[in-house]
Write a structure and sequence with these properties.
Layout: E1 15-18, H1 24-33, E2 38-41, H2 45-53, E3 57-58, H3 62-66, E4 71-74, H4 79-86, H5 92-95, E5 101-104, H6 110-121, E6 126-129, E7 132-133, H7 135-140, E8 144-149, H8 152-163, E9 166-173, H9 177-205, H10 210-218, H11 225-236, H12 245-262, H13 267-284, H14 292-299
Helix pairs in contact: 9-11, 9-12, 9-13, 9-14, 10-11, 12-13
């Protein structure tokens, strides 16, 4: 089995990128800027055109994208999409070369990552789960936190590639560990957004200058990356995604399920999961997760 070190691209592995959405587009463009050859495939033609304009190559299928790649990176919505692109005759496992490294950066269930690593091993393909935190802004600025699960040797090979995408890159343990840490991340982010949303409604109803209040709050113990990144969304009621409520609903399901499996109680997380589900049921699934503010406004009697 060959590895990246003895590939035909010893210093700059050839990259295939599957999934060029809100995150995948800017992330793949950062690899191109760092000097990597990137061949991509995604479902939307305009995203393929964007990749080509940025200096990448647009492929017509997953098979075409991955066939000559040393590293295959995937960034799709959830477990069913990861399974759809990985398995089957048109999928990554049947078409990538033996020795390739598959880095799945999607946020999915830890068990899907474990199963994928096992299935890929039979084909001589190594896998890392490497979900990210930092949002669209973090992707554009290449400052993502990347939580990795898998083998140390594969992590060491992936690190230079990941360094073009993020700032904090940590191997958390065996396959699935990156996803478990990401699930915890999504719990913390959702609860934090909910607390900020409740504070915003409380402050506005109290007649306090909201901009001044959020500025001073962000300088103290109540400050957070969530408040820094989402302050303008709250102030301007700008809920263009960003990170869609639909995806956070998926993530609250992952963390709730994973916690139940290990016997961990998440009482506040469970309530926030319900609020996210309620927002989605009211047709707000396509909005940014800062739209949790709309749920608090509705509960507080405002016309939204
Ligand atoms: P997105 O919906 O914007 O993009 C997903 C992309 O996957 C689309 O371009 C779609 O064409 C592609 N895709 C889906 N099925 C495919 C298939 N069968 N073949 C090829 N391409 C396919 O989603 P996103 O916001 O970029 O999120 C991607 C992942 O990153 C999710 O797991 C999400 O939870 C996670 N994430 C998102 C953010 C964020 O702020 N948006 C932050 C951290 C993590």
């Amino acid at each position: 089995m060959s590895t990246l070190a003895d590939s035909s691209h010893p210093t700059r592995p050839a990259i295939a990128w599957i999934g060029l959405g809100i995150m995948g587009s800017p992330m793949s463009e950062n690899l191109i800027k760092a000097g990597y050859d990137v061949t991509g495939f995604t479902l939307e033609q305009d995203k393929l055109d964007r990749l080509a304009k940025a200096g990448g190559r647009a492929a017509g299928s997953i098979a075409e994208a991955v066939k000559d790649a040393d590293v295959v990176i995937t960034m799709v919505p959830a477990s069913p999409q990861v399974e759809a692109i990985a398995y089957g005759p048109d999928g990554i496992l049947d078409n990538a070369r033996s020795g390739a490294l598959l880095i799945d950066m999607s946020s999915i269930t830890p068990q899907t990552s474990v199963d994928l690593a096992k299935a890929a091993k039979d084909k001589g393909i190594r896998v890392l789960d490497a979900p990210v935190s930092g949002g669209e802004a973090g992707a554009i600025e290449a400052v993502l936190s990347i939580m990795v699960g898998g083998e140390q040797a594969d992590f060491d090979e992936a690190e230079p590639v990941l360094e073009a995408l993020g700032k904090t890159i940590v191997l958390c343990g065996p396959h699935g560990s990156g996803q478990t840490v990401k699930a915890a991340n999504q719990l913390i982010v959702a609860v934090n957004i909910q607390a900020c949303a409740e504070a915003v409604v409380f402050l506005e109803k109290s007649g306090v200058d909201l901009t001044a209040a959020l500025d001073v709050l962000n300088g103290g113990l109540a400050g957070s990356t969530v408040l820094t990144r989402k302050k303008d969304n709250f102030l301007q009621r700008d809920f263009k995604p960003g990170f869609r409520i639909d995806l956070h609903h998926k993530d609250m399901g992952i963390v709730t399920d994973a916690a139940r499996n290990v016997g961990a109680a998440l009482p506040v997380g469970a309530v926030v999961a319900q609020l996210v589900a309620s927002l989605r049921a009211q047709g707000d699934g396509g909005l940014d997760h800062s739209a949790l503010l709309r749920a608090v406004e509705r509960l507080s009697g405002a016309q939204v």
